[in-house]
């Protein structure tokens, strides 16, 4: 396989209520071009922090992020802008991310200029809108955000991200605020961009059903750590970790694509722990129906599960000695 563009390992410390909180701990993540990696977890599991780290909106206090083998540390202006050109974010709320007093033309023109993608501006705008299926483009350029539907606004936000000509797209809950009926269209657009622009996409979601629908690889986060990962179909059809099984069981209808599951529904079966003082051993042990004595004292390493080719693994003592 091709060399992946982004890799990060280990921890980040955030200061909250004057106490150090390790929001993400020992997360090892590889994004590859032409692939969608889904990161699934409840709110507060640290998944948005991963996106903020990769985009360098916040900075790691330990660990390493690399892009094509180069260490990323974009704290300063020029390097931050160069990083932004390659790694773009799409947020959950397209209304909040677009300025209500500016037209679509203004948003996209500005993005093209910031990233020094001069060329023919009219053609550039035309291409961006066509790429996100807002056609005919002329019809959308003069519109203000409030004149667009939620799905159209998210398409404008995606077009703006594409204006930078990125290699990596970080999409943090990009459809969770949209009507169920239009979610699939936006996910299909992201998949189309993965293929046509050969983008590496990190899809962050609390909805494992949508991850099942379109991710090539799935990582499940719990309490700031990745607890299961591997080929998307293996993880969602043959979930190994008890937490992943809980997520699937609490989804309203596991076969439903991009369903109406709310973050509350995903939280059925207890609350995720505080990251200020996470449980010892396996962080999931207070909620786990299979917890054994060692689970409350020893943190489980990753064990291979299932077929060898799927790269499927779970950090759970149930699989100690199961794989090889
Ligand atoms: Fe449950 Fe133990 Fe596995 Fe943690 S390590 S998920 S507590 S069985
Ligand atoms: Mg979040």
UniProtKB/TrEMBL annotation:
The entry's keywords: ATP-binding, Nucleotide-binding, Transport
UniProt xrefs under InterPro entries: AAA+_ATPase (IPR003593), ABC_transp_ATP-bind (IPR050319), ABC_transporter-like_ATP-bd (IPR003439), ABC_transporter-like_CS (IPR017871), Oligopep_ABC_C (IPR013563), P-loop_NTPase (IPR027417)
Gene Ontology molecular function, alphabetical: ATP binding; ATP hydrolysis activity
GO-annotated biological processes: peptide transport; transmembrane transport
Domain of life per record: Bacteria
Annotated Gene3D superfamilies: P-loop containing nucleotide triphosphate hydrolases
Every ABC transporter domain range: 8-248
Protein name: Dipeptide/oligopeptide/nickel ABC transporter ATP-binding protein
Protein source organism: Actinophytocola xinjiangensis
